[in-house]
User: What shape does this take?
Amino acid sequence: MNIVLILVSVFLAGVAQVTLKVGVDRVTKAGGGGHIALGAGGLKDLAASPVVWGGLVLFGLSAVVWLFALSRVELSFAYPFAALGYVIIVLASLTVLHESVPPLRWAGVAFIIAGIILVARTA
Assistant: This one.
């Protein structure tokens, strides 16, 4: 059950990141491309985006689940699993955002997975 809580939190955080990226991209496209302006105007544009709000809500849910997980396990056990967020992001970037993922980045993902497997074996 403890690992399930950790994994749910990490998964929600990963989905939140992708949701925020989709929201930011929509705000950027609506503004004519380029970047979101730093300052009040950019904040107003972001605050008007339901997709951005959805990403923030997912982050909040992730944090709540993370707190439940931390109440049950040591931080030194739980925190390395946060690196799975990077794996989730790379996979989502490839499949959802249609970004390219170079081979060296895949090698990094493999090392992350290997490290998490080592940490999980200490439970």
User: Anything to note?
Assistant: Helices lie at 2-30, 40-47, 50-70, 75-78, 84-95, 103-120. The two ends are 12 Å apart (CA to CA).
